[in-house]
Design brief:
The protein is mainly β and 78 residues long. It is 0% helix and 45% strand. A four-stranded antiparallel beta sheet has the order 5-4-3-6, with no helix packed on it. Strands 1-2 form a two-stranded antiparallel sheet. A hairpin with a 5-residue loop joins strand 3 and strand 4. It is globular and about 25 Å long.
Length: 78
């Protein structure tokens, strides 16, 4: 099995950590996507301050889940 990791910087505390793109944190996950492109984005919790953020493609720093560029489209079961 292949895993894809990338570096992410927390927008709240500045902590830099590795994010597993394919790792989910529980049985129900909100699905987020960019309004403009309809591309799905991953979500993660900072291991230092535990705030939830979204990880945009090709962007080093995470963003708030309530960012105006994002739409929440529901939940999915794992």
């Amino acid at each position: 099995m292949m895993y894809e990791y990338r570096e992410v910087k927390c927008p709240w505390c500045g902590h830099i950590f590795m994010w597993n793109k394919d790792g989910d944190e529980g049985p129900i996950v909100y699905m987020y996507r960019l309004k403009e492109t309809k591309e799905y984005v991953g979500d993660v919790k900072c291991p230092k301050c535990e705030k939830k953020m979204l990880v945009l493609p090709h962007v080093f720093e995470g963003i708030d889940v309530n960012d105006e560029r994002i739409e929440t489209i529901g939940v999915r079961g794992i």
